[in-house]
Write a structure and sequence with these properties.
The chain has helices at about 15-25, 60-75, 75-80, 105-120, 130-135, 155-170, 215-220, 285-300, 350-360, 375-380, and strands at about 5, 10, 35, 55, 95-100, 125, 145-150, 155, 175, 180-185, 190-195, 200, 205-210, 225-240, 250, 255-260, 265-270, 305-320, 325-330, 335-340. With about 400 residues, the protein is α/β, with parallel strands linked by helices. The model has no long low-confidence stretch (mean pLDDT about 95). Bound molecules: flavin-adenine dinucleotide (FAD). Flavin-adenine dinucleotide binds next to helix 1, strand 3, strand 14 and strand 18.
């Protein structure tokens, strides 16, 4: 049986695992990096099933800084990830994010807006009249205003995985199509990975980048993480009315969200209490018809008339402690690094989180200090506040 030694082994090769691999090799091209991914088509990966949104409108300082970094990073992504003549296409559309605000939400929205601007984010306060002017189909009088991020937008998540992955491979990363079934430890340290094929990889560093499956990876070494895979449903519909400009990613006070998609489609979703915990990817038009459509049509009455086109479900990797990233070494097992718990906003955090974790592993000084997300807070039961989780 083949046994190989690496400097770093990454478990999961979607956006987080590939960002870590890319950043490690960018910082030190001599590293031997293995990425174990059981599903190279990424059919069930959260990344491939996500909405692709990038927004600076968060309430926690570090989350805002991460998104500012992402906005710049994704603008030059296609260039930075080019391999020879081949460039990935991520279709980054800066159509904006519009949070619609009701009376109870106004003080928090104003506070968040002040912080976002203080940190250099471009976010505007829109009156209902301004919303109406920009989007005449909206029933803007339902709201006291909105916050609009003109540099926010959305992109193709699959393109982002592929960009990171191909660049990491070109720098020397070895992607292994296999499943991690066990993690070996010796004297309180990471020692290796055992794969379903029987192959064993040796290394003193393992990165848990398994997204919704990260809890299972933690349990392989007796680490209980506050993570749950949660089914989230998205629907693609085609309104009868045609839009004269693409809709931003609009978020209503209830958490209902919708945005334009190519072909005159609108994507609609909402995280709900009753969303199932587990690895199932089931979805049901009843959710759209009974819950989402009535609210959607209240906000945009012209959406009363639409054609149901398709739907899908993906998994959020919900961090039940505080819905924020868990990023850094696990304090009770040397060499075990976590990049987990992104709870629905991980795609946009992948550039900064991947770079930060690579810097930590290599003992470099972090470019962006993300130590607030350190896993130690799990052991200390010390949640971070973030009010803008969708
Ligand atoms: C419906 C939906 C909408 C979303 N919208 C947004 C958004 O607008 N903006 C945003 O920023 N984020 C969004 N997200 C969240 C974002 O998609 C995730 O936070 C992010 O993609 C997580 O990336 P990941 O690489 O950690 O996980 P994943 O993409 O799930 O990758 C984990 C990988 O690990 C592999 N793996 C797991 N276990 C093993 C094992 N034992 N052995 C080998 N391989 C293994 C899996 O095959 C998988 O490919 C959304 C998510 C969903 C579901």
């Amino acid at each position: 049986m083949e046994a190989r030694s690496y400097d770093v082994m990454v478990i999961g090769g979607a956006v987080m695992g590939s960002s870590v691999a890319y950043h490690l090799l960018k910082l030190d091209p001599s590293l031997r990096v293995a990425v174990v991914e059981r599903d190279p088509a990424y059919t069930r990966s959260s990344t491939a099933l996500s909405l692709g949104g990038v927004r600076v409108q968060f309430s926690l300082k570090e989350n805002i800084l991460i998104s500012l970094y992402a906005q710049d990073f994704f603008s030059r992504f296609e260039e930075e990830m080019a391999v020879g003549e081949e460039r990935p296409a991520i279709d980054y559309r800066r159509a904006g994010y519009l949070f619609l605000i009701d009376e109870p939400g106004k003080p928090t929205a104003e506070k968040d807006l002040a912080l976002q601007r203080e940190l250099g984010g471009r976010v505007e306060w829109w009156t209902p009249e301004r919303i109406q002017k920009e989007f005449p189909l909206f029933a803007a009088d339902l709201f006291v205003g909105g916050t609009f991020g003109p540099r926010d937008g959305y992109l193709d998540p699959y393109g982002v995985i592929m960009g990171f992955r191909k660049k990491a491979v070109s720098l020397g990363a070895r992607y292994i199509t296999d499943e991690v079934t066990a993690i070996e430890t010796a004297r309180g340290k990471i020692a290796g990975l055992r794969l379903a094929s029987g192959q064993v990889l040796h290394s003193e560093v393992a990165v848990n980048a398994a997204g919704p499956w990260a809890g299972e990876i933690g349990r392989m070494v007796g680490v209980e993480l506050p993570l749950a895979p949660v089914n989230r449903q998205v629907f693609a519909v085609k309104p009868e009315v045609s839009m004269d400009r693409p809709l931003p990613l609009v978020i209503a006070p209830s958490g209902l969200y919708f945005r334009s998609e190519t072909g005159g489609l609108i994507l609609v979703g909402r995280s709900m209490e009753e969303d199932e915990i587990g690895f199932g990817l089931q979805w049901d038009w009843k959710r759209f018809t009974d819950w989402l459509w009535p609210e959607l049509a209240r906000i945009v009455p012209a959406f009363e008339k639409l054609k149901r086109v398709r739907g899908w479900a993906g998994l959020y990797e919900v961090n039940r402690l505080d819905s924020n990233a868990i990023l850094g070494p696990w304090p009770e097992l040397e060499g075990f690094y976590l990049i987990n718990g992104f709870s629905g906003h991980g795609l946009q955090q992948s550039p900064a989180a991947g770079r930060y974790l690579a810097e930590l592993i290599l003992g470099r000084r972090p470019t962006l200090d993300l130590s607030v997300f350190a896993p130690r807070r799990i052991l200390e039961n010390h949640p971070l506040g973030e009010g803008a989780v969708v």
